[in-house]
Every structure is written in C-alpha cells, then in structure tokens.
Write a structure and sequence with these properties.
This protein is α/β, with parallel strands linked by helices. The protein contains seven helices and nine strands. The strands form two sheets. Strands 2-7-1-8-9 form a five-stranded parallel beta sheet, sandwiched between helices. The chain has a four-stranded mixed beta sheet with strand order 4-3-6-5. A hairpin with a 2-residue loop joins β5 and β6. α1 packs across α7 and α5 packs antiparallel against α6. The longest helix has 15 residues. It is globular and about 45 Å long. About 30% of the residues are buried.
Length: about 190
C-alpha cells in the first residue's frame, strides 16, 4: 500500500470500549465513508451478519490468506484470529474514499509500521469499571474470557502513546463527533 488519494483511519482500543457503536454513529453521519470488514475465525455474536460485521471464516481459510499475503494486518486475540483484507481497502483509497478500520492494537501496530499515512485513533472507556460493565453487559463471554479481555485491556491501554489521538467514549455521539472533527481536520 502506498500513499493514496483517500484516507485510512484506524480506530482501535481495548475490547468493550464501544468501537463498533462509535463507528456506526460515524457512518450514520458520513455514509460516504467506507467501513473495512475484517475476517475472523470467531463465531458470530447474535445479530452479526457474515460480510457485514465480519467475514466469518475457518482457521484453514485464514491461514491460506496469510500465506497468500492477502491481509494488511492480522492478529490473534483471545484464541481467535482477525485480519484486514488488503484489496478492498486499496480499491477504496484509490477512489479517494475515507476507509475506517476497527482493529486491535496488534494489528494497528502492523499498519502503522507500514507508513501508509493513516490517522490513528485510540478509543477508551471513561474508566476500567465502565469497561468491565460494558463487557459483562454483552453477556457473550465466559468469566474466563472476560477476565482475559480485562487483563488484555490493561496492557493495551499502555499502547495509547503510539496513537495520534486518544478519544474517550463517554457517549457514542460525542466520541463520533470528536473523531469526525479529527478526520475532517486532516483534509
């Protein structure tokens, strides 16, 4: 990926910070922006649709994509694999579109190391207590996975120094407006 006519926006942060909710709000306000759909080996959560939330694929398919260098980034998180397919992003950027990536810290580091001119935003919850409440409120993880997510979140919070911006998600609307202001300030 070289320098492009479009903008590549990374939004990452610990699990449970509300990245998906904030991104939905951004896309509601700016429907011309494109959301990068990642591939994952995890099972869909209730309401998630293949090809919309993620491309839900097998471990074998994921490994084939790694071997064929089809990912801009890929990472393992709580026993599952996640990756961002390169081709659709490049097509959008070449067309001058803004593309939003919702990726974990490991993947964001990979993209940032490629010097593709991304706008790097780290989203955080107002507090660790609020983060835990959000994760528990999902009702999708076992206690063991929940504890693993919280431990990982504490480590990931240390990585915020590597981002251009840190945004607190106290409300999705306010956080989305702050992120839009950042993106539009880069025009």
């Amino acid at each position: 990926m070289g320098k492009n006519a479009g903008k590549l926006v990374i939004i990452s942060g610990p699990s449970g910070t509300g990245k998906g909710t904030v991104i939905k709000e951004i896309l509601k306000q700016r429907p011309e922006f494109k959301f990068s759909v990642s591939s994952t080996t995890r099972k869909p959560r209730p309401g998630e649709v293949d090809g919309v939330a993620y491309y839900f694929i097998s471990h074998n398919q994921f490994n084939e994509m790694i071997e064929n260098e089809e990912f801009l980034e890929h990472a393992q998180f709580v026993g599952e694999h996640y990756g961002t397919p390169t081709k659709p992003i490049q097509e959008c950027l070449d067309a001058g579109q803004t593309v939003i990536l919702d990726i974990e810290v490991q993947g964001a580091k990979q993209v940032m190391s490629k010097d593709v001119g991304s706008i790097n935003i780290f989203l955080i919850a107002p507090s660790m207590e609020e983060l835990e409440n959000r994760l528990r409120g999902r009702g999708t993880d076992s206690e063991e996975k929940l504890i693993a997510r919280l431990e990982r979140a504490r480590k990931e919070l240390e990585e915020k120094i590597h981002y251009d911006y840190v945004v607190v998600n106290d409300t999705a609307t306010r956080a989305a407006e702050e992120i839009l202001s950042i993106i539009e300030g880069k025009e």
